Amino acid sequence: NIATTMAKGLTGTLTNEGTLDISGDLAITGGELVNAAGATLDYRSGVVSMTTNPTDRIRNEGTMTISSTGVKALEGFLLNNADLDITGEITVTGGEIVNASGATTNFTDGSVTLTGATDLIRNQSGGTLNFNAASGQSADINGSGRVLNEVGGIAELSDVGGIDLNTTGVGIENDGTFTWGSSATLDLQMAGSEFQNDGTFHFNGSVNRTLAGPGTFTNNGTFNHSATGNDNLQAITSGGAFDNFGLFDITVIGNFVL
């Protein structure tokens, strides 16, 4: 375990092939922390800092959890090549959480603060990003950065909880495929909060959905309102806006209620 008793430094490569808990500060300089295939890494608390060298990083090849216990700060890069679960709070400053091709990130009941405009959660082509909070919970995105679903990436809002966007600009940018397949709420909680669709956005499933908050949903791509049957957008509330500059497809059964 990387515990809280004193700050730790890592130069070179540390590979975990069993179970590793991070609950203290760790500085990575000229190396990487690797969670191997079949291994388990739980990031519970502490500051993990790195140099600006992109090879100084945490690299997950197994199962990694950003857990619900403790305050965490990532100052650098986390590369997920396998399975990552975000269930707790984390602040990203000067870095990215990258979900690579073939990898899966599940964003359940967590809260991610992306401090600066260049701080990202990046879902690369071939990666899968699931927003799947339980009832009464939400995936919270805060700060000045954004979640970027790149061309070829797959993102899905499939829970009964929802997404709370508390960003000062574009909080989610979809350049790939984003599917809203549940009755969850997409809450654009600040006037400056924006969901920007530049790719394909699907409604999927005969349920009622709510787009809430004073923020803006901007469609520059394809907004497929009727992917499968009676796909309803139930309400836009609290003074929010839906701005369409692309294709709004509502050719099959579906309700769009303001």
What does it look like?
The protein has no helices and 31 strands. By secondary structure, the protein is an all-beta fold. The strands form 2 sheets. It has a 20-stranded parallel β-sheet that branches. Strands 2-4-7-10-13-16-19-22-25-28-31 form an 11-stranded parallel β-sheet, with no helix packed on it. The radius of gyration is 19 Å and the shape is elongated. 45% of the residues are buried.
Question: Short summary of the structure?
Answer:
This protein is an all-beta fold and 258 residues long.
Report the uncertain regions.
none
Question: Alpha-carbon distance between the termini?
Answer: 52 Å
Helical coverage, percent range: under 10%
Number of helical segments with 4 or more residues: 0
What is the count of β-strands? 31
Quaternary: single chain
- Radius of gyration (CA) equals 19 Å
The fraction of residues in strands falls at over 45%
The structural class is: mainly beta
Summed over residues and divided by their number, the pLDDT gives a mean of 88
Shape designation: elongated
Biggest sheet architecture: 20 strands, parallel
Write the topology of this structure.
Elements: E1 8-16, E2 19-22, E3 26-35, E4 40-43, E5 46-50, E6 57-60, E7 63-66, E8 72-75, E9 77-80, E10 83-86, E11 89-92, E12 96-99, E13 104-107, E14 111-114, E15 120-123, E16 128-131, E17 139-143, E18 146-149, E19 154-157, E20 162-167, E21 170-174, E22 177-180, E23 185-188, E24 194-197, E25 200-203, E26 208-212, E27 216-219, E28 222-224, E29 232-236, E30 241-244, E31 247-249
Parallel strand pairs: 1-3, 2-4, 3-5, 3-6, 4-7, 5-8, 6-9, 7-10, 8-11, 9-12, 10-13, 11-14, 12-15, 13-16, 14-17, 15-18, 16-19, 17-20, 18-21, 19-22, 20-23, 21-24, 22-25, 23-26, 24-27, 25-28, 26-29, 27-30, 28-31
